[in-house]
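Objective 1b of the project was to move from sequence-level analysis to a structural picture of ligand recognition. The entry below was assembled by the postdoctoral researcher (A.K.) and checked by the PI before modelling. It contains the amino acid sequence of the target and the SMILES of the bound compound, adenosine-5'-triphosphate.
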Amino acid sequence: MNRLLLQGKRLLADWLDRPLRGGVIVGRRYRIDELLGIGSYGLTYRCTDLLRGRPAALKQAKPSKGAAARELLRREAGMLERLDHPAIPRALALLEERGQLFLASELAAGVTLEDWIFEQGRTFSEAEALRLVRSLAEIVGHVHKSGYVHLDVRIPNVLAKLSSSEFGAPNSAARAGFASGDSLSLIDFGLARRIGEPPLALASADEHDRRRAPAEPASDLHDLGELLLFLLYSSYEPAPGAPERGWEEELELTPQARRLLRRLLGSDGPPLSGVPELLEELDRMLAAR
Ligand SMILES: Nc1ncnc2c1ncn2[C@@H]1O[C@H](COP(=O)(O)OP(=O)(O)OP(=O)(O)O)[C@@H](O)[C@H]1O
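Corresponding predicted holo structure:
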């Protein structure tokens, strides 16, 4: 495609996708407070549910993505309605207004693991990382029991809230890891599918590879392995100028954690049969400490 035409298309998409301003009220109930982020198929806002006087999340199907974005948002709404779990935001309403489709849901509390690690510089010991993955695996297990796979279990899609010290409080930087009273939320079911469901045929050139991942629990187990690696790397300090060596050499782990990671990532050992087996393994490892 010629460069000028491409530029024109991008300008049009930016204009179509310009975020709604703070103060705008959607569905006579949700007042936009701020834009949280723009994803590939949606714009997400933090808003106030005027009926309940509480904060909520509002996701708008990205106008430039047309019918595909609307279909994904409808699917996500249907899934959130069926996934009844305290760690998964509940759907509040699907709204059509001024030709735009919106999904209002509960606002998950806390900050994403991505911000926790990269912005707040938090580090995890092996035990803390295992404990966090255990909590997260319980949530993912609920998704599987309900007949779905999330297919996007990554650090930007997991929010953590500490029970005893608030984020941003003066002493919070000193606190690392994850304790039993802390809570997690799993968000962004935009890529989730029913177990065994074939990939969605969305006619878009910039489709994420994850959209084509097999809709099997094994995909989420693999992602949990990658997420565990991220947490473990939070306390890794490479020596200046040292070449990259891969996690097996770079991280100092117990043999049990190493074996579990290999099984989750599919590099060695029998693959885990599902979340229940992962929970059993994690419980054994944590009890032995
Ligand atoms: N229910 C929610 N509660 C709290 N924060 C949320 C909620 N839903 C989304 N967010 C936040 O809103 C921001 C934008 O999310 P969104 O899912 O629209 O896009 P993304 O995750 O950045 O991109 P993509 O969907 O392409 O992966 C993220 O920072 C996310 O943490």
